[in-house]
C-alpha cells in the first residue's frame, strides 16, 4: 500500500472540500507570519474534523493536544499551524507569498 501524502490530502481538503462538491473551507490564508487559518462554516465542521483525523490519524489528538479556534457568527476559525504542528509543513503546501489573507 502506498504511503499517504498528507500534504496533498490537506491541500485537497482545503481547496476542494466535500466529494459532493461543497467546500468545507469558506476562507483561508496566512493572517500573519505564524498563523495559517481556515474558516469552516458550522455546517461542515464535523466532516472537516473527520477528514483531518482520516489524513493525520488519531495521533493528531493524543497527549491532550489542543489548538486555538475562534467561533464567529457564521464559521469557526482554526489556526492550522497550531493544530497540525509537527505533522506537516503548511508553508510548503501553502507558501506565504501566495496565500496571504
Strand and helix layout:
Elements: H1 6-15, E1 25-30, E2 36-41, H2 45-56, E3 69-71, E4 75-79, H3 80-83, H4 90-93
Antiparallel strand pairs: 1-2, 2-4, 3-4
Key words describing this protein structure:
single chain, 101 residues, alpha+beta, 4-stranded antiparallel β-sheet
3D architecture notes:
- The termini are far apart.
- It contains 4 helices and 4 strands.
- It has helices at residues 6-15, 45-56, 80-83, 90-93; strands at 25-30, 36-41, 69-71, 75-79.
- It is 30% helix and 20% strand.
- It has 101 residues and is α+β, with helices and mostly antiparallel strands.
Compact overview of the structure:
Helices cover 30% and strands 20% of the residues. The protein has helices at 6-15, 45-56, 80-83, 90-93, and strands at residues 25-30, 36-41, 69-71, 75-79.
Amino acid at each position: 500500500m502506498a504511503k499517504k501524502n498528507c500534504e496533498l490530502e490537506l491541500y485537497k481538503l482545503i481547496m476542494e472540500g466535500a466529494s459532493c462538491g461543497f467546500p468545507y473551507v469558506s476562507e483561508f490564508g496566512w493572517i500573519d507570519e505564524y498563523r495559517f487559518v481556515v474558516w469552516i462554516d458550522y455546517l461542515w465542521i464535523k466532516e472537516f474534523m473527520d477528514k483531518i483525523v482520516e489524513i493525520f490519524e488519531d495521533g493528531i489528538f493524543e497527549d491532550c493536544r489542543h489548538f486555538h479556534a475562534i467561533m464567529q457568527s457564521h464559521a469557526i476559525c482554526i489556526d492550522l499551524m497550531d493544530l497540525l504542528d509537527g505533522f506537516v509543513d503548511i508553508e510548503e503546501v501553502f507558501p506565504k507569498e501566495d496565500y496571504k489573507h
